[in-house]
Amino acid sequence: MSSEAIAAPGGLSFDLSLDQQAVREMVRDFAEAEIRPIAAKIDVTHEFPHQNVKKMAELGLLGMFVPEAYGGAGMDYVSYVIAIEELSRVCASHGVIASVNNSLVCYPLMAYANEKQKQKYLVPLARGEKLGAYCLTESNAGSNAANQQTTAVLKGDAWVLNGAKIFITNAGPSDVLITYAATDRALGPKGISAFIVDADTPGVRKGKLEQKLGIHASDTREIYYENARVPRENLFGELNKGYAVALATLGGGRIGIAAQALGIAQASVEAAVKYANERTQFDRKIGEFDAIRAMLADSAIELETSRLLVYQSAWLRDQGRAHIKEASLAKWHASEAATKCANWAIQVHGGYGYLSEFSVERYWRDARITEIYEGTTEVQKMVVAAQVLKERAIAGD
Ligand SMILES: Cc1cc2nc3c(=O)[nH]c(=O)nc-3n(C[C@H](O)[C@H](O)[C@H](O)COP(=O)(O)OP(=O)(O)OC[C@H]3O[C@@H](n4cnc5c(N)ncnc54)[C@H](O)[C@@H]3O)c2cc1C
């Protein structure tokens, strides 16, 4: 047993604290009251839920683990994943809007920005007075995000940015763009830096709203930088160390997406169980048929194992302990579980599963993205394999 394990406080417990339970109750009440009534509609209209984003800000859901001194709610990471799970249980678009602002925007500023940058940007972002986006992916820098073609060249008192980012969540409504760019292309991943870019900077342009399979109410666009002059002091973290910022950010972000997937899986299982108890065929509730029961049992194991992995990785993060492998396991497993559970929910509903009325087809469309963004399943497997091999090397096998 490692010394880390011996030092664990209080032994093994699967109980949430009273504060964590209160977060679940508060977010569930909010989601049922404010999101449920519009979730199906905004899936059809692709409308960004501005009013609800404001309400999420008031509830502290956009800067959950940011210290109160910087405008955040000062909660732990477990509370954060519970909130994303509960939002996504009702509408996965709301889940990702919050997850991006928390994990991909507030986190890197919290961890790497200087005091002046924190006061100017982190405080309003954590309060939800501003909304942020995370701009890493490019047409030739997806899974291999190190292949950044966007450049930043220092000219006088400004970094001049040129390039294009694709698939950017929250792009349309965003005020702040956390942007990665090559400051020394010859150095590859060791020549990338991170910048805080005001979205209204001259030379920054947002593309058209992308049409997607799911998460329709999240706003996805390209972002173009055309001789955009970003103040010199808006580079954050160290010069040429931005790729480490991007990777560390995704390390936590993955847990947020795993929580989004968990919420979708939960919603799918609830819908399938409800329908199995209501629908009658051959004079019996369909929940009495072995084939339906098998789908519900398969869903249950996918859901419960996902929850264990997601909460475990969040808990490890709260303890300041290593969680690279656990975050990738959670993201890989929960995302596939969400797709499977939504698919079974459609099957349990028969023909109605294929219609929009019962929402399960939305859950399936929304689930699918969780297997792709913030690192595809294939990338998660690469991370897990590398960690497992490292562990074995340390163990001397
Ligand atoms: C709706 C949506 C929202 C997004 N939001 C954001 C955002 O806010 N900010 C941002 O920066 N990005 C965002 N992304 C981008 C997302 O993170 C990337 O799409 C994802 O990382 C995959 O990159 P790619 O699309 O270029 O696929 P590719 O990297 O081209 O991958 C294509 C296929 O090849 C596989 N593959 C690639 N390399 C390997 C390998 N070495 N071994 C095995 N298989 C491999 C992949 O797993 C995948 O199956 C978003 C994407 C979408 C669709």
Write a structural description.
The chain has helices at residues 3-6, 18-45, 50-58, 77-90, 92-112, 115-127, 242-278, 290-318, 324-348, 351-354, 360-369, 377-395; strands at 132-135, 151-155, 158-169, 176-182, 192-198, 204-206, 220-231, 235-236, 280-281, 284-285. With 397 residues, the protein is α+β, with helices and mostly antiparallel strands. The protein folds into three domains: 3-130, Acyl-CoA dehydrogenase/oxidase, N-terminal domain (Butyryl-Coa Dehydrogenase, subunit A, domain 1, Orthogonal Bundle); 133-240, Butyryl-CoA Dehydrogenase, subunit A, domain 2, CATH 2.40.110.10; 244-395, Butyryl-CoA Dehydrogenase, subunit A, domain 3 (Up-down Bundle). Helix 5 (92-112) packs antiparallel against helix 7 (242-278) and helix 7 (242-278) packs antiparallel against helix 8. The longest helix is centred in the middle third of the chain and has 37 residues, at 242-278.
How is the topology of this model organized?
Elements: H1 3-6, H2 18-45, H3 50-58, H4 77-90, H5 92-112, H6 115-127, E1 132-135, E2 151-155, E3 158-169, E4 176-182, E5 192-198, E6 204-206, E7 220-231, E8 235-236, H7 242-278, E9 280-281, E10 284-285, H8 290-318, H9 324-348, H10 351-354, H11 360-369, H12 377-395
The structure holds flavin-adenine dinucleotide.
Residues 100, 133-137, 142-143, 167-169, 212, 220, 369, 372-376, 378-379 line the site of flavin-adenine dinucleotide.
Could you give a short description of this structure?
The chain has 397 residues and is an alpha+beta fold. 54% of the residues lie in helices and 14% in strands.
